[in-house]
Amino acid sequence: MAVILITTLMLALVAVQGERNWNFDNTDAVRGPSHWKDSYPGCGGKRQSPVSIKTDESEQQSELEEFVLTNYDNTVPSLTLTNNGDRVKVLVNGGKPKLSGGGLGFAYEMSQFHFHWSTNNKRGSEHKIDDDEYAGELHIGHLKQGSNAADAYADPQGIAILAVLLKAGGSEDHPAYEKIFQYLDKIENASNEYEMPSFVLRDLLPSNLHKYYRYNGSRAEPPCEEAAIWTIFHEPVTLSDNQFERLRQLKNKDKFLLHNNRPVAPLYDRKIYISWRKHSKEGVADNCNGLKVSKSFIITVVIMAFLKQLT
Ligand SMILES: *[C@@H]1O[C@H](CO)[C@@H](O)[C@H](O)[C@H]1NC(C)=O
Ligand SMILES: *[C@@H]1O[C@H](CO)[C@@H](O)[C@H](O)[C@H]1NC(C)=O
């Protein structure tokens, strides 16, 4: 009883202060990620994101063909860069790029994209691939064509999210990401907004769009609606360390935004699919592997026979 009362009082206090009753602080015993489900039961569901992906436990699915990207190569009419208090978010206004194909049953329209990062380059991505965490992750959110956000969030296939894993250590600033990051000083403080010049959003994606992971998941923030079809591209994009450093200069009040990735959720009975055929170098034996061995074996035999003739 006392606990409920105290929790209620704390939530009320939070509401009065105009702050959200959730955050990304794993040490916060009331508002941290493991307590989101106390206020938002959806966050404790069985189809939550992000997840830890194991390539060799994933299955190839032939329906996961190429994506059809429409308007991705045009500049959109306007982009609003925002600091929403824990992340950098860019709202896509008008003339929205469209996404279809890629094993998606519907067409989707881009609505926003945002970045996740953390205190240092060893962590920051939301998804983990074969136990690797990347320095950051870009999420490009798309709503089912013809749906508003509320309808899409209530639909098990209402949103399609493209995730790009971001690596640190690039020798120079990534030019497309710099089109956004050059304006980060304009959104230094929480709720700052800046109408930034538009650019070709396709340039944020990796060059290989054929290899990707696919699973059914959720929005990765409260109320964690289980409405998302996730695509995580296999090929990461590399940014410079300085670009990550500049993300860490952003603030909410007097605090730097240093950590905004949700911990991975259990997979439960979900499957993760991959769009490509696994090869031996990813640790999985298949026919291709056997073929390679026998080819090199044949070549060796031929060379040995040839050398024997010479002697
Ligand atoms: C952010 O807030 C600080 C402290 O109030 C202020 O000095 C600075 O100019 C603000 N930055 C922007 C981009 O508004
Ligand atoms: C996602 O859920 C739908 C509906 O249940 C199902 O048809 C589809 O195969 C699932 N996709 C994945 C990648 O699990």
From TrEMBL:
EC number from the UniProt entry: 4.2.1.1
Cellular component annotations (GO), alphabetically ordered: plasma membrane
EC category: lyase
Record key words, sorted: Lyase, Metal-binding, Signal, Zinc
Alpha-carbonic anhydrase domain segment(s): 20-276
Signal peptide limits: 1-18
Catalytic activity line of the entry: hydrogencarbonate + H(+) = CO2 + H2O
A UniProt-annotated Pfam family: Carb_anhydrase
Top-rank lineage group of the source organism: Eukaryota
Single annotated GO MF: zinc ion binding
Protein family per UniProt: Belongs to the alpha-carbonic anhydrase family.
Protein name: carbonic anhydrase
Organism: Paralvinella palmiformis
